[in-house]
Amino acid sequence: MFFKKKDKELESIVAEIKVDLSNNYKDNAVLGVKKLREKIAEKESLGKIKEKDLNVYKGYLNDFEMDIKNFKRTY
Question: Bigger pLDDT: 70 or 23?
């Protein structure tokens, strides 16, 4: 059986954001979303991510942005 190879770098960022959101670490979550947005754009521009995977991570990004859009930034 073949397993889908995930992008470890993006998966790590997604996991960090999920932990930050679950622990109510708002500032860290906001920074994590920014990092994810930048890393997705970088990989997309360099052609280092498949279209299917790109859509998955953009979906995560969209969900996280909805979660944090009402946060008041403290920095």
Answer: 23
Quote the CA–CA distance of 66 and 46 in Å, as a whole number: 27
Q: pLDDT digits over 19-35, tens only?
A: 999 998 989 999 999 99
54, amino acid identity: L
The 3-class secondary structure across the chain, one letter per residue, is CCCCCCCHHHHHHHHHHHHHHHCCCHHHHHHHHHHHHHHHHHHHHHCCCCHHHHHHHHHHHHHHHHHHCCCCCCC
Residue with tokens 């790590």: 12
CA distance 11 to 40: 11
